[in-house]
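Form P-L/3: holo structure prediction, ligand magnesium ion.
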Amino acid sequence: MLGFAKKAKTPGDTQPTGPRHVAIIMDGNGRWAKKKHLPRALGHKKGVEVVREIVRHAGKTGLEALSLYAFSSENWKRPEDEISDLMGLLRAFIKSDLDEFAANDVRLKIIGNYRALAPDIVDLIDNAIARTAHNSRTTLAVALNYGSQDELVRAATAAAAEGAITAEGIEAHLDTADLPPLDLLIRTSGEQRLSNFMLWQAAYAELWFTDTLWPDFTPAEFDTALAEFGKRERRYGGR
Ligand code: IPE
Ligand code: IPE
Ligand code: MG
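OUTPUT (holo model):
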């Protein structure tokens, strides 16, 4: 049975209290910097600080998985200096935060084709994945060079190689195959679009949008989103 249908409500079912898997499209770093007359790079730098706070906080809420959209397959269209700033921040983040993940039972996972990143970053990532592979409290899935259409093409190709293409077959080959079904998708910065993120996984996810720019996002607002999720009635097409 498909992951997103696993929790389909049947009469007598009670709504689970909290989401198992939350994903965030972390948007608005550039606008935050612009508003403050700061260089864009400082918006991204503050954005990483917020990532750290939210990861710490999410671990305390009992979430099984937190997926963060950090760099899309379309973000290569940006100017070279911005891409280089983002890659620099990624290197620094892995180096500075890996010990904390390891100590806090966080498993690091990457979705997207991260092998196309610079070789030293690929090495850092492979080391971080290996070091946290046996952690089991929360999975932090960071989307790097991720595009959902590309993910679906890869998954469908792999499924086809095994025989007739089925929804279950595709799902089994998604980058997120080992994560719980996506329950809640948050996007900051006021944009209300998916920007090629988790198109399949969002089929029955609850969507929550906020005008807050990512560098201003707080654990309290994360809790607000979780509380809002708790009030939603998920029907999965049933009644
Ligand atoms: C999100 O902030 C970070 C990435 C996409 C890497 P943006 O850089 O997209 O910020 P805005 O949308 O221009 O404000
Ligand atoms: C989506 O944000 C990608 C990430 C947050 C990494 P974008 O800023 O790239 O999305 P668009 O271009 O506004 O759709
Ligand atoms: Mg943006």
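COMMENT: The CA atoms of residues 41 and 97 lie 20 Å apart.
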